[in-house]
Amino acid sequence: MNIGILGAGNIARKMAATVNAMEDTVLYAVASRSAEKAKNFADEFGALKFYGSYEELAADGNIDLIYVATPHSHHYEHALLCLNAGRNVLCEKAFTANAKQAEELICIAERKGLYLGEAIWTRYLPMRFRLDEIIASGVIGEITSLTANLGYSLADVERMKKPELAGGALLDLGVYPINFALMAFGSDIAEITSSCVKNEYGVDTHNTVVFHYRDGKTAIIHSNMNAETDKRGMIYGSNGRIEFENVNNCEGIVVTLKDGTVTRYETPTQITGFEYELESAVAAIKAGETESREMPHSEILRVMQIMDDLRAAWGIVYPFE
Q1: Measured distance CA(213)–CA(192) in Å, rounded
Q2: Which of 9, 212, 289, 304 could pair with 191 as two cysteines, CB 3.0-4.6 Å apart?
Q3: Position 284 confidence tier, pLDDT thresholds 50, 70, 90
Q4: What counts of helices (H) and strands (E) characterise the chain?
């Protein structure tokens, strides 16, 4: 399949390297607002074409799938452009700035019969399914709670600190532990409690969220753009615990039981980790489907609504909303 990349930043570079290393994808085109930047990107990664505008990329009928790699404040605008031009879209996380934008894009994609997916890679990684198997085995007994956190020192990064760029820890970092909790415990949540600390621009620098499940489980979630955290997901049961090393990109799973037994599951060798979300998109497009099995539209909307509700509780509104 011919892949187009909209945007030429760091995450676009990672996807370009991934596309080039896969067997059934071709890096067909890249677009940037700067033709020079697009050309340099195309030269470096061997893209067949480059464009100095996103509109030109979207209009190219030879492209089978466009990967949107711009800041999430612009995902709605750029995904809409591609969908309206009849292109299938794989959009980087956070999918959009809010649930309303997400719902509109999904409605358009489904109406047009186009694929629209969220490139939240943790939903597609093999270790996510290994975790499912471990939980289902009942090896750690009756499960009661989990903790998950993700933090990096990013407070001075422009896209993180400014509300006009949909900044804050939640959409950029918190989306990962939120997804981890939903993957591990599901979505039958009775109540969500939370708190955050804001920067001088009014977006959250770090936050703590608790999911209270109807069956009595709790999930305690933390994200932080002021500090490097251990990035672990921990699941606790009556007979032991599961340690998921790095909720952003699993580096291994360790199961420790009460009797001292320790079992480690290694992460399979990968290109970059992005190949799995791309494989899913390619398979869905070939099957004529509009969503992926791993991250269906209903889950995209669920995550966006949770983050909307959290921001509403914290009084965080982006200027463009």
Answers
A1: 9
A2: 212
A3: very high
A4: 11, 14
